[in-house]
Amino acid sequence: MTEPKNIEEHITQLQTSLASNSQCGTTHYNLGVALLSQKNIEAAEKHFFEAIECSPSLAEAYVQLGGICLQRGDLDACLDFNKRAVRARPGFSEGFGNIGFVELQRGNIDEAIKALEKAIAFNFRYIQALTTLGNAYLIKGRIDDAIEANQKALNVEPNFAVAHNNLTIAYLEKGEISQAITHCDKAVALGYEVPEQIKEEIEQLRRTSPSE
Questions:
Q1: Where are the alpha helices (DSSP H) in the chain?
Q2: How far, in Å, CA of 167 to CA of 62, rounded?
Q3: Could you tell me if residue 127 is left (phi over 0), alpha (psi between -120 and 50 degrees) or otherwise beta?
Q4: What sign has the CA pseudo-torsion 195, 201, 206, 211?
């Protein structure tokens, strides 16, 4: 098979492959991803279901279906698909990360922390899980743990703006003003929309705190 020149050619090749072997879960999955990139949600969803039927252990397909449900605002279905993903592959960090994200949205902080800690245990470079875990720790009042989680994210990607924003809030909570100002400035410089209330608090502290 020749290298496709564009996404349309890639889709055509995958459809041709399925015409000769309709039971290949991986091909159904790859076609679903390609269709998703074209915003063809319903067709993509169909192929992700086909992928699971052909290959029940294909955890990535469950995660993609969960993502579609999340776009539709259906948190329950998103959570269910990601739980099915980690049952299909117990060490699948992305599934645990998504479970943690949904549980946090639902206000189940302890469940979120449990899932997110599993996500980073399986992949310590999973920066989205690290920053979401940092948020969960912050809500629980575990400020030092929140700082540690976001610092680990910055160890992976120093310009990850979300982590800088989270550290701004954590250091404000801890009363470490210079650190809060530094991370706020970095988040803003990276284009992150720091909440106006936080920016105002930082500007006030910048005016009133002695320079170090």
A1: 7-20, 25-37, 41-54, 59-71, 75-88, 93-105, 109-122, 127-139, 143-156, 161-174, 177-189, 196-208
A2: 32
A3: alpha
A4: negative
DSSP conformation class of 109: H
**Separation CA 61–CA 72 (nearest Å):** 17
d(CA 118, CA 122): 6
| pTM for the predicted model, two decimal places | 0.89
Higher pLDDT, 65 or 5: 65
Of the candidates 46, 37, 47, 52, the residue with the CA atom closest to the CA atom of residue 6: 37
Cβ pair 170, 184 in contact under 8 A: no
Smallest Cα–Cα separation from 107: which of 146, 63, 139?
A: 139
Q: Hey, what amino acid is at 152?
A: K
Tell me the per-residue pLDDT of 6-38, one tens digit each, with 9 for 90 and over.
888 899 999 999 999 999 999 999 999 999 999
Q: What is the CA angle 135-137-141, rounded to 5?
A: 115
Record the tokens describing residue 67, joined without a space: 């993502």
Segment 105-123, tens digit of pLDDT:
999 999 999 999 999 999 9
161-181: pLDDT as tens digits: 999 999 999 999 999 999 999
Phi first, then psi: give them for residue 58, nearest 5 degrees: -80, 85
